[in-house]
Specification:
Distance between the termini: 40 Å
Number of strands: 26
Helix content: 10-25%
Number of domains: 3
Strand content: 25-35%
Bound molecules: flavin-adenine dinucleotide
Strand order of the largest sheet: 3-2-1-7-19
CATH class of the largest domain: Alpha Beta
CATH superfamily of the largest domain: FAD/NAD(P)-binding domain
Largest sheet: 5 strands, parallel
C-alpha cells in the first residue's frame, strides 16, 4: 500500500470531523488537515432546530469538541476556508485564501445545502432557511418580537422549527406540497399522528399547496401566495424544502456523481486517492434493496455521517471493512420523539404496535422488515436496530402483538 503522509478532509462538519478524530484514535500519525468554510469549530446541527433555537443551549454546547482537542490531536482545522478546486493529477486542492494543499488521500465531506424556493420574492428580507449556526442565530433574532410565521415544507426541520415557535405562542402555518407531513420519510400512520400533535400545539397546516410567490412590502416579506390564490400574511418565512448535495468539486474533477458523489461499499470514489462520506455521498447498502432508486442511497443523518467517518478511518489505517451500518435517525418535535431505524419505501406495508404511551409502526417490504418508526418508544427503536442489523425479521402478527417479546427476538 502507498505511503500516506498527508490526509486532507474537505468539510469540517459531522462526517469530516469524525473521520479526523477516528483517524487519530486509530493511530494515524501523518498530517491531518480539516478544511471547512464555516467560521466555527465543528459543531452539531441537530440542536439548531431544537434546543439551540429554543435558547436552551448556547453555541459552546453545540461543539463536537472544544478547541484544545484539535491541537492535542494535531488536527489542523482551517476554519473559514473553502476548497475551490480539485486537481487530481497533481493531488492538490486549491483554497479560497489563495493557497493550495497537496494530499496523499483526500476525503470529501462537503454535506448538502438547502434547496431554494424558485418563486418571485424568495430573496426578500425575512425569507430564511436553516442549515448552519449562522442561520440559527439569524432565526433566533428574527423570531423575537414577531407574530406570524409561515414555514414552507413539512419535513423534519420545518416541523421542528414550527414546534419551537408554536411553543413560544407564535402563530405558525406550515405549507406543504404533499398531502401529509414527512411524506417522503414516514408511513401515513406516523404522518397522521404528528399532524395531530402539531395541530394540538396550535400549528395550522395547508396541504397539497404550492407556493407561487412571496409578496413584499418595502423590501420585506409580507405574505406568502399559494397556487390556489390564498395570501397568507407573514412576518417571517422559513423555507425547508429539502437539500442538494455539495458535489460540484467532485463533478468538476470528473468523479462520478448522481444526486451525490458515488462511492463503493468501502466509501471510495472512482479515484482511489479520494473517498467521500456523509450527506454528500450515494452509496450501496443492503438496507436499500427494493427501494425505488435501486440499492444505492444518499442519507442525511448524524448516524450515517459518524459511522461512515469511522468506517473510512479504519480503511485508511489498513483495516478495511465494507460499510454496513443500520441507518437510524431521530427527530424531536415539541415533546414527541420520533426515531426511525431502517429505510422504508413509500409503499411498504405498515403494522401498528401500540403501547400505553407511544407507538411504533413496523414497515414491511416483500414480507421482510424494512424499517420501524417509533414515537416515544425508545425500546422498540433499539430492538429494531438489532433486528435489522442481524437481518432477522418477524411476522406482521408478532409486530402488532404488544405481548410479543421484541427484545428477546432481537437479542436471541
Ligand atoms: P455537514 O455537517 O453539513 O458538514 C459539511 C460541511 O462542509 C459544512 O460545514 C459545509 O459548509 C462544508 N463545506 C462544503 N463545501 C465545502 C468546501 N468546498 N470547502 C470547505 N468546506 C465545505 N440528523 C439527525 O440524524 N437527527 C436530527 O435530529 C437532525 N437534525 C438536523 C437539524 C438541522 C437544522 C440540520 C441542518 C440537520 C439535521 N440533521 C439531523 C442532519 C445532520 O446534521 C447531517 O446529516 C450531518 O450534519 C451530516 O454531516 P456531514 O458532515 O455530511 O455534513
Amino acid at each position: 500500500s502507498e505511503a500516506m503522509d498527508r490526509i486532507v478532509i474537505v468539510g469540517a462538519g459531522q462526517a469530516g470531523f469524525q473521520a479526523a478524530a477516528s483517524l487519530r484514535e486509530a493511530g494515524f500519525s501523518g498530517s491531518l488537515i480539516l478544511v471547512g468554510d464555516e467560521a466555527a469549530l465543528p459543531y452539531q446541527r441537530p440542536p439548531l432546530s431544537k434546543a439551540y433555537l429554543a435558547g436552551k443551549t448556547d453555541a459552546r454546547g453545540l461543539l463536537l469538541r472544544q478547541e484544545s482537542f484539535f491541537a492535542e490531536h494535531r488536527i489542523d482545522h482551517r476554519a473559514g476556508t473553502r476548497v475551490t478546486a480539485l486537481d487530481r493529477g497533481a493531488r492538490q486542492v486549491r483554497l479560497s485564501d489563495g493557497g493550495s494543499l497537496g494530499y496523499d488521500h483526500l476525503i470529501l465531506a462537503t454535506g448538502t445545502r438547502n434547496r431554494t424556493l424558485p418563486v418571485p420574492g424568495a430573496d426578500l428580507a425575512g425569507v430564511r432557511q436553516l442549515r448552519s449556526l449562522d442561520d440559527a442565530d439569524a432565526l433566533r433574532a428574527a423570531i423575537e418580537g414577531i407574530r406570524r410565521i409561515v414555514v414552507v415544507g413539512a419535513g423534519f426541520i420545518g416541523l421542528e422549527f414550527a414546534a419551537v415557535c408554536a411553543a413560544r405562542g407564535l402563530s405558525v402555518t406550515v405549507i406543504e406540497a404533499a398531502e401529509r407531513v414527512m411524506a417522503r420519510a414516514v408511513s401515513p400512520e406516523t404522518s397522521q399522528a404528528f399532524r395531530a400533535f402539531h395541530e394540538e400545539a396550535g400549528v395550522a397546516f395547508l396541504f397539497g399547496a404550492g407556493v407561487t410567490a412571496i409578496e413584499g412590502e418595502g423590501g420585506r416579506v409580507a405574505a406568502v401566495r399559494t397556487a390556489d390564490g390564498q395570501s397568507l400574511p407573514a412576518d417571517l418565512v422559513v423555507v425547508g424544502i429539502g437539500v442538494v448535495p455539495n458535489q460540484e468539486l467532485a463533478e468538476d474533477a470528473g468523479l462520478a456523481v448522481r444526486d451525490g458523489i458515488e462511492v463503493d461499499a468501502f466509501l471510495a470514489t472512482s479515484d482511489p486517492a479520494i473517498s467521500a462520506i456523509g450527506d454528500c455521498v450515494r452509496f450501496p447498502t443492503r438496507f436499500a434493496a427494493g427501494l425505488p432508486g435501486g440499492d444505492r442511497v444518499r442519507i442525511e443523518s448524524v448516524q450515517n455521517a459518524v459511522d461512515q467517518g469511522r468506517c473510512l478511518a479504519a480503511r485508511l489505517i489498513g483495516r478495511p471493512a465494507a460499510y454496513d451500518a443500520v441507518p437510524w435517525f431521530w427527530s424531536d418535535q415539541g415533546p414527541r420523539k420520533l426515531q426511525i431505524a431502517g429505510l422504508a419505501a413509500p409503499d411498504d406495508a405498515s403494522v401498528l404496535r401500540r403501547a400505553s404511551a407511544g407507538f411504533s409502526v413496523f414497515r414491511f417490504r416483500d414480507g421482510r422488515l424494512s424499517a420501524v418508526e417509533s414515537v416515544d418508544r425508545a425500546a422498540d427503536h433499539m430492538a429494531a436496530r438489532r433486528l435489522l442489523a442481524a437481518g432477522r425479521t418477524l411476522t406482521p402478527e408478532q409486530a402488532s402483538d404488544p405481548g410479543f417479546d421484541l427484545k428477546a427476538l432481537a437479542t436471541a
